[in-house]
Amino acid sequence: MVQNPNRCPTHPGELLLKDIVPATGKTEAELADMLGISSEHFLDVLTETKPVNAEVAVRLGKLFGNSPSLWARMQTAHDTWVAERNVDVSDIPTLKKT
Hints:
By secondary structure, this protein is mostly helical. 60% of the residues lie in helices and 0% in strands. The protein has five helices and no strands. Helix 2 (28-35) crosses helix 3 and helix 4 (54-64) packs across helix 5 (68-86).
């Protein structure tokens, strides 16, 4: 499957908020408690104001029975796409093999 380069990869918080949390039948507070993180931290991830760091990725992977690398890759893809559009690299040369 080819991804549209003009579409920002989904932030893991969006996937959690729109699909996964509702499917569990649990509240955000209950899930935060199960993850061992504060409700505030979990809400920040869900609202995309905090990234899914490695520790949270490990916790999400365990809770939902998948790989921590899934969550980390989603976050990295999102962050890289945003950075490529916001970081000015025009003054950085590209080294070439000689």
